Amino acid sequence: MGDASRLRVPAGYVAGLVALVLAQPNLFSLVLGGVLAVAGEALRVWASGYIEKTQYLATGGPYAYTRNPLYLGSVLVGLGVAVASWRPEAAVVAGLYFVAFYPAVIYEESTFLRGKFGAEYDEWARFVPIFLPRLNPAGPNRSRFQWDRVEQNREWRTAAAIPLMALALYARARWLPPLW
């Protein structure tokens, strides 16, 4: 994989830290941001239960709506953090992060999958959009959800990060003065 894939996760931590430092959250922003982040994580858990990385092409569940439900879930989580931070600068940082990394990572991944799965990938890609989801499922829809895949894909890390970030944002609002 390319530079975008290698740098995406560390850069995400930096973007989250910037959002935390800039944050001026309130109860409304924490609740609204929390709803978005939880929705994004729910999508990520759903997608993680279908994917067996590099083994099989996931086409069922959320993969029948979008070819990249994990990344779409991550965008919702990032948007949730930005909203919870309640600073426009945090939203700009989140937006720049996603624009800088996700198009390249999605391209790299689609190139890899097309090379590995060939006609099967092409059939799926013909019916399922690359990012923004369809309203109705489409494509071959061959894979099935399994909870053990969620664990194998280590989705617990993102699931654990969301309440930790919520606590950090709450602490920032409660005990630290605004930067300006």
Structural class: mainly alpha
Distance, first to last CA = 41 Å
Strand-residue fraction?
under 5%
Number of strands: 0
The stretches of 5 or more residues where confidence is low (pLDDT under 50) are none
Under CATH, the topology is which?
Answer: Four Helix Bundle (Hemerythrin (Met), subunit A)
Give a verbal description of the structure.
With 180 residues, the protein is an all-alpha fold. The chain has a single domain, classed as Four Helix Bundle (Hemerythrin (Met), subunit A), CATH 1.20.120. Helices cover 69% and strands 0% of the residues. It has 7 helices and no strands. The protein has helices at residues 3-22, 27-48, 69-85, 88-117, 119-127, 147-152, 156-175. Helix 1 runs parallel beside helix 3, helix 1 (3-22) packs antiparallel against helix 4 and helix 2 (27-48) runs antiparallel to helix 7. It starts with a helix and ends in a 5-residue tail after the last helix.
Quick tags:
180 residues, mainly alpha, Four Helix Bundle (Hemerythrin (Met), subunit A), elongated
Short description:
The protein contains 7 helices and no strands. It has 180 residues and is mainly α.
